[in-house]
Every structure is written in C-alpha cells, then in structure tokens.
Amino acid sequence: MTTARKTVHPTHHRVLNPATGETVATVPATTAPEVDAAVARAAAAQRHWAAAAPADRARLLRRFAVVVDGHIEELARLEVRQAGHTIGNARWEAGNVRDLLDYSAGGVERLTGRQIPVAGGLDITLLEPLGVVGVIAPWNFPLPIAAWGSAPALAAGNAVLLKPAETTPLTALRLAELALEAGLPEHLFQVLPGAGDTAGRALVDHHGVAKIVFTGSTRVGRSVAARCAEQMKPATLELGGKSPNVIFADADLDAAAAAAPMSFLDNSGQDCCARSRILVQRTVYDRFLELLAPAIEAVVVGDPADEKTQMGPLISRHQLDRVRGHVPDDLTGIRGAAPEGPGFWFPPTVLTGVAPDAPVAREEVFGPVAVVLPFEDEADAVRLANATDYGLSGSLWTRDLGRAVRVSRAIQAGNLSVNSHSSVRYGTPFGGFKQSGLGRELGPDALTAFTETKNVFFSTEA
Ligand code: NAD
C-alpha cells in the first residue's frame, strides 16, 4: 500500500521542516502551460496598473506594506517551519519585505525622466514600465529576495510573476494572498511555485516576460543569462559568493573576533554574503584564533523557534551532504556543537592550515564553514581577498582610515563593510562583481532597473 508520505504526485513539491525532517505541506508545481496562462493574465493586469494614477499605485503598495506588517509574526513562523530560520532572523526578513514595499512606494511618484536641451524643440525622456517581470528566487532568503525584485518592479508599473524555490514556496504564496487582501489588482502579483527546469525555464523563455531577476547559483544563473540573451531580454543576476573578512594587526581584535562567528554562521552559512574566508595578518594570527575559539563555541545552535537560538539547521539532506563533502574528517581548527538526531544539522566549523588554493578556500560551501588564512601585509591581503572567482561582499577591520579607504577600493566586490559585517540595506545598492552577478538591486535606483528609457523629441519648428 502506498502512503501520502511516500508518494507525492510528480506535479507537487513536498515542503519539509529542516529542523525535524517532517512534511509541512505539499504544494502543486506550476506547469509550462500554466505559466503561459499566468503571463497572459499578468499582461492584462499590468496594462491597467501602468495606466493608474501614480499616487494610487503608491497608496496600494503602502497598504500592502501595512498588511504585511500586520502579519510579520505569521510570516516569520511559517519561515521557521519551511526554512529552519531562527525566529529572530525570520521576523527581520518579514520586516524587510514591509520596509521594501514602503521604500518602493515612495519611488512611484519620484520616478522622473529628464528634460534635455536640444535645438529646434523640446526633448524629454520617459521611464516606461517593462511589462511582465519574472522573479526567480532561491531557498536561502525566501521572503527578502522575493521582495527585492517584486516591490520595485511593481512600483515602476510592472506586473510580477514570482517563482519561489522548490523547497520554500509557502511564505511567497502567503505574500500573494496578502497582496490581494491589501487591494492590489488580481493577477498583478502572482506566485508560481514549481521546478526550476519547468516553471523557471518557462518564465525565462517566455516572450511575454520582459525581464528576469534571478537569484541563485552561478551555474544556473549562467544558463538563465544565456537563454535571456536569445531574446535580448534583460536579466539581473544575484549569484554566489565567497567573501573575505580581512583583519589587520591594528584592528580592535576583540571586536573583530566577537563579530566573526555570525558573519559566516548567520542562516547556517546559507548566505551569499557569508564572510567564509577569514584573512588575518600573521603577527596577530595566533591571538585572533585564541579569541575566536570561545566565540564559536558559544554560538547557540538548536531549535530555530527558540528565541535564544542563533543558528538553526541546513535547508535539506542534499545541502547537508554537500557541506559534509567540503569538510575533511581530520580537520584542524575549531568546532562548535549541533543537535543530533532528525533534521539537517551541521556544527559551526572553522578550518585552519588550509592551502589558499584548496577548494574549500575558494568555492562557496553555503554552510557553517569558514577557513582562516594568514597574510603578510596590505598588498598580500588584497591579493588573497581577490583570489576567488566571486566578488559579492567582504569586510575589513582596521583602525587606519587611509588603509580602510585603500583596501575598500582595491577589493573587487559589490558590498564592503569596514569594522562591521553589514551587507544589505534596502536603501543601498546590492549586487556582485565577477561571477557573483550582473546588475544591482535595492537602493535609490531600484525602480529604474524595471523601466525602459524612451526619448521623445517635440519639434517647435512645425
Ligand atoms: P539554484 O540556482 O539551484 O536555484 C535558484 C532558483 O532558480 C530556484 O527557484 C530554482 O528552482 C530556479 N531554477 C533552477 N534551475 C532553473 C532553470 N533551468 N531555469 C530557471 N530557473 C531555474 O540556487 P539555490 O540552490 O536555490 O540557491 C543557492 C544559491 O543562491 C547560492 O549559490 C547563493 O550564493 C545564491 N544566492 C545569491 C544571492 C545574491 O543576492 N547574490 C542571494 C541569495 C542566494
């Protein structure tokens, strides 16, 4: 006899609680013909949306933000269950959706073109909405990444089709319900759960989808970009990272060691901005490790729903196996603790004595694993920081202002932080150099990325 646990219909995805391995929900997977129908509905909704008064569009997005605000706790609890995020993080993530909707709403009436001096007439530029935008999100930050693409796209007058990751569709689906509750027009913001190579691929290849915002692995991002190129379809790509945390001998070592653990353990290391390469000037290397060890061991790993927990499980068995594959059995370094039993748990892990060109020092692990490498001087630090194919974020710790400026200029990354580990603010641009991506999200120009510039000349000679 078959049971519901063993046989999930192939057109459905099972969503598991990563802390227990138990099934939370099964969700229908969108088929390619269903994507076609969704695009047609979205295109019709978009025409009305773009024609509405800007103040009305802004008001509806603000109302959406208010409705999300009223459901922060519900969204956060759902994220804990489907993604294993700590409850504190999940509340911040739901709040980030609210804040981004508010911020984007503020842009609707400020999305202005230009008036350019020309001979014989008047020249203006119009920022036209693109039409239907496809947003493809990963599982590591389902709520914020859904909003980073969707909120500014809607604000700029577009419709949005959001495809969440297979493992984490529930909060995105709830957001779509909240949008309707807030009064957003039907079909303007649709969520299409499903497989990357069917629903995701259908969105990318659809001629009715004007732009793709893709966040995920560099491998898939490259193929999405190539398929978009077939149609000259613009794509914003937010991809992987292997970010450095550079600690100079003149830094406040206590502060740097205290901040280092959560800079790569937050979200169990499943963070494209994780500072997973800790580069320490050789003269303070031993002292730094002495300070780092108790800080790592003190990290509270466990039930993500517990308010005190700092780190929860990995997202899936697949991810756990991937992370294990990066860590040698005979590791030297620092090891924290993790629960045993059901769920996808891996302890905080710091590797020392690793060659700078070893795979674990260069490839994205996407788990709670960092390497510590010594460097000699400023030039060596910059060389090592840039010795990766990625360039998403990074941090540097120094009390020397001139060095902070020089090294910030020299590191090839889109988001740097001095004497802290901040990466993401909705009001500042975010994105990567090199294999970490193409284009920028968030910040003051976020809406412009969802428009096409049209130049119009009015002759005064006629
Ligand atoms: P992934 O590339 O496997 O999947 C990402 C999304 O793409 C999912 O929704 C998936 O279903 C979809 N997809 C898969 N194949 C597709 C295809 N052929 N066509 C269209 N869509 C397809 O990545 P993941 O494992 O879900 O996420 C982890 C990765 O995301 C990491 O590498 C991480 O660094 C990256 N990430 C980057 C950022 C950033 O802003 N730079 C943020 C978060 C995560």
User: What is the CATH superfamily classification of the largest domain?
Assistant: Aldehyde Dehydrogenase, Chain A, domain 1
- The whole-number mean of residue pLDDT values reads 95
- Write out the strand line-up for the largest beta sheet, numbering strands in chain order: 12-13-14-11-10-16-17
Bound molecules: nicotinamide-adenine-dinucleotide
How many domain regions?
2
Instruction: Assign the CATH architecture of the largest domain.
Output: 3-Layer(aba) Sandwich
Cα distance, first to last residue? 82 Å
DSSP summary: helix tally? 14
What's the overall geometry?
Answer: globular
Uncertain regions spanning at least 5 consecutive residues: 1-8
DSSP summary, beta strand count: 20
CA-atom Rg in angstroms: 23 Å
Percent in strands: 15-25%
- What is CATH's topology name of the largest domain? Aldehyde Dehydrogenase, Chain A, domain 1
What can be said about the biggest beta sheet? 7 strands, mixed
The percent of residues in helical segments reads: 25-40%
Using the coordinates above, name the CATH class of the largest domain.
Alpha Beta
Which helices and strands occur, and which strands form pairs?
Blueprint (H helix, E strand, L loop, with lengths): L11 E5 L6 E6 L3 H20 L2 H16 L2 H12 L3 H22 L6 E2 L4 E9 L2 E5 L5 H14 L3 E5 L6 H13 L6 E3 L4 H10 L5 E5 L2 H13 L4 E4 L5 E4 L5 H13 L11 E5 L3 H13 L19 H10 L6 E3 L13 E3 L7 H4 L6 E7 L2 H8 L4 E2 L1 E5 L3 H10 L4 E4 L14 E2 L2 E2 L12 E9 L3
Parallel strand pairs: 5-6, 5-8, 6-7, 8-9, 10-11, 10-16, 11-14, 13-14, 16-17
Antiparallel strand pairs: 1-2, 3-4, 4-20, 9-19, 12-13, 15-18
Helix pairs in contact: 1-7, 2-4, 2-6, 3-4, 3-6, 4-5, 9-10
Nicotinamide-adenine-dinucleotide (NAD) binds next to α7 and α8.
